[in-house]
Amino acid sequence: ARIRHYNFDVRYEFKFPDCYQKLVITVNGVSPGPTIVAQQGDTVVVDVTNDLGTENLAIHWHGIRQRGTPWSDGTEGVTQCPILPGETFTYKFVVDRAGTYLYHAHYGMQREAGLYGMIRVALPDGVSEPFAYDYDRSIILNDWYHNSTYEQAAGLSSIPFVWVGEPKSLLIHGRGRFNCSSLGTTSSVAGLCNSTNPECSPYVMTVVPGKKYRLRVASLTALSALSFEIEGHNLTVVEADGNYVEPFTVKNLFIYSGETYSVLVTANQDPSRNYWITTNVVSRKPATPTGLGVFNYYPNHPRRRPPTDPTSGPPWNDTAPRLAQSLAIKAKQGYIHTPPLTSDRVIVFLNTQNKINGYFHWSVNNVSFTLPQTPYLIALKKGLLNAFNQTPPPDGYDFLNYPIFKVANNTNATSSNSIYKLKFNTTIDVILQNANSMTPDTSETHPWHLHGHDFWVLGYGQGKFDFNNDPKKYNLANPIMKNTVPVHPYGWTALRFQSDNPGVWSFHCHIESHFYMGMGVVFEEGVEKVGELPSSIMAKAQKASTAREVIGGS
Ligand code: C2O
Ligand code: CU
Where in the numbering of this chain does the Plastocyanin-like domain appear (predicted)? Predict the structure, then answer.
């Protein structure tokens, strides 16, 4: 095993990802940031320097379980104090299995300002993948706004509420296209939006006819659920969130924020032309143009326009094919980790939108999550009982009486920074239950992401979860393990995981504004088994008080 050392210089720069000028958070000058490449068992060391000037920072390594290093998870308020402007913070963790993972900012709504990238972990020498391919490529899909994360965050926490709205464009590996002419033709617009800027020329994937490609596709959208297609080509799904999938083939891949997939695609179509790579919004009424890239058959010119019109994707409001894809994802034969057949604790998480004191929130069991000032990991290790609310949040709600298909009366919703304490090394079931939002006839897709673990996906269903019958239908034979999973509109998703990773772990909706509005929880497990915390995760004042404790004075 090797050490893979990266230096990340994080700063704001003016960029034109979709031809429109925006202040973008870059890593070493680019967004998406550099891909971290490592081999299973390697130790990744990332020295992150915060050059944002006036803004804090934290970076989360999404899908990496951080066994033995919970302080390197990068979740501000949970596992560390933020990295202050001018400071350098060292993340150090082992990548203990091969697969496709991500990294992104985990402070405020910074992720959607452009701080994101991919982590590719290769198998150990001498071990091969259970599928063959000639080349390995990766892309991250994203949605893009023109106003700043501050405008968005301020709007979400204002009365009257200002919703972030639909994204201006969809980016394929950092490249999209906003229609500059929609802004008029004044000279001020000319500098602000420039459709000939090379930064917004479409993403091109050049392929050699007859060759087979492993394409790693990830989504880090702020809001959107996406469909993804390569015109005229089948996509065979072989990996999901770092776990092998029993292969199945789709024309169109649905992907939610926080998910990664590997698909195999063979360049087996008419090689005399190029094809569109398209991504479209689903699950919300789209108001964003199709994201476009070019699947370029060598030796055609990469800028040669495909002769066809790009597809606008599947109907946005048809949940059935999306649920069908979710149900099709099973662990690959020969790579199945079977789950325990029973669980020790079942926690139901009802997802609702609420108003609290006139402000819009998202809640879980009528509790809207807020972050404490002192990160939980530090508070728990140091026994700082005043750092957060010690009353545990509820394991469920008045399930039988809750009207999931209606705009419900959630007037008793509250905010809290309390957490779920899990008995160490037990089996936990989580039932995520969706419901109607505060808009009539509206239920959104929420992609839930768990830090520090993979979970087994035991089942999905529509309507209200049935405690008597639905558990009998759980897939206990070959469930896929994932770290991010959608909860479909008006539906439920059942997960199982083991509380075997000492630390404090977020579990939240990966939609940036939903998490910001409180759609998340925190699990603690085995925190007494966590080794001594590095002082770098503490803010200066805490470091000083720790030093006083050590020398025995105050
Ligand atoms: Cu990728 Cu807590 O998120
Ligand atoms: Cu959500």
Answer: 16-122, 138-299, 405-526
129-318: in CATH 2.60.40.420: yes
Residue 553 has pLDDT above 60, yes or no: no
With residue 516 as reference, give the H or E element that holds it. helix 512-516
CB contact at 8 A, 400 and 467: no
The reply to whether 1-125 and 345-529 are identical in fold is yes
Which residues fall within 8 angstroms of residue 238, CB to CB, at 6 or more apart? Answer: 129, 130, 131, 214, 244, 245, 247, 262, 263, 264, 332
Q: Give residue limits of the domains in the chain.
A: 1-125, 129-318, 345-529
Closest ligand 1 atom to residue 257 Cα is 1
CB 105 within 8 A of CB 116: yes
Q: How far is CA 352 from the centre of its chain?
A: 20
CB of 62 shorter than 6 A to ligand 1:
yes
Kindly tell me the burial class for residue 458, based on how many C-beta atoms sit within 10 Å of its own C-beta (0-12, 13-18, 19 or more): buried
- Is 0.80 surpassed by the pTM of this model? yes
CATH of domain 1-125: 2.60.40.420
Give residue 362 CA to ligand 2 midpoint distance, Å. Answer: 8
List all residues 6 or more positions away from 387 whose beta carbon is below 8 Å from its beta carbon.
372, 373, 374, 376, 378, 379
Q: Peptide bond before 70: cis, by omega within 30 degrees of 0?
A: no
Q: What is the pLDDT of residues 9-24, one digit of tens each?
A: 999 999 999 999 999 9
Q: Any idea which fold 345-529 has?
A: Immunoglobulin-like (2.60.40)
Q: Is 320 helix (H, G, I), strand (E, B) or coil?
A: helix
Q: How high is the pLDDT of residue 187?
A: 63
Which-ligand-closest: CA of 449? 1
Q: Is the CB of 77 under 6 A from ligand 1?
A: no
> What are the pLDDT digits (tens) for 370-390?
999 999 999 999 999 999 999
- Helical H segments across 208-276, by residue range: none
CB 3 within 8 A of CB 174: no
Other residues' Cβ atoms within 10 Å of the Cβ of residue 365: 19
**Alpha carbon of 118 to ligand 1 centroid (Å):** 13
Residue 111 alpha carbon, nearest atom of ligand 1: 1
Q: Is the distance from the beta carbon of residue 510 to the nearest atom of ligand 1 less than 6 Å?
A: yes
User: Residue 32, class by beta-carbon neighbours within 10 Å (0-12 exposed, 13-18 middle, 19+ buried)?
Assistant: buried
* HEC sequence for 118-168: EEEEECCCCCCCCCCCCEEEEEEEEEECCCCHHHHHHHHCCCCCCCCCCCC
Q: What is the pLDDT of residues 209-232, one digit of tens each?
A: 999 999 999 999 999 999 999 999
Beta-bridge partners for 225? 282
Pairing of strands 88-94, 36-39: unpaired
Number of other CB atoms surrounding residue 54 within 10 Å: 6
Cβ(449) to ligand 1 under 6 A?
yes
> Which protein residue's CA is at the shortest distance from atom 1 of ligand 1?
62
CB distance 243 to 236 below 8 Å = no
> 532: buried, middle or exposed (CB in 10 Å: 19+, 13-18, 0-12)?
exposed
* Main-chain dihedrals φ then ψ at residue 192, nearest 5 degrees: -80, -30
